[in-house]
Amino acid sequence: MLPLVRTGHRHASFFPPLRLPRLLTLTVMAAGAVVALSGCTPAVEVSAAHDSANPACAPMMVALPDVLGDAALRPTTTQATAAWGDPSLVILRCGVSVPGPTTDRCVGVNGVDWIIKQEASAWTLTTYGRTPATEVVLDPDKIPSSTVLAQLSSAAAKIPAQRKCLGPADETAVPTK
Question: Is position 78 within any domain?
Answer without folding.
Answer: yes
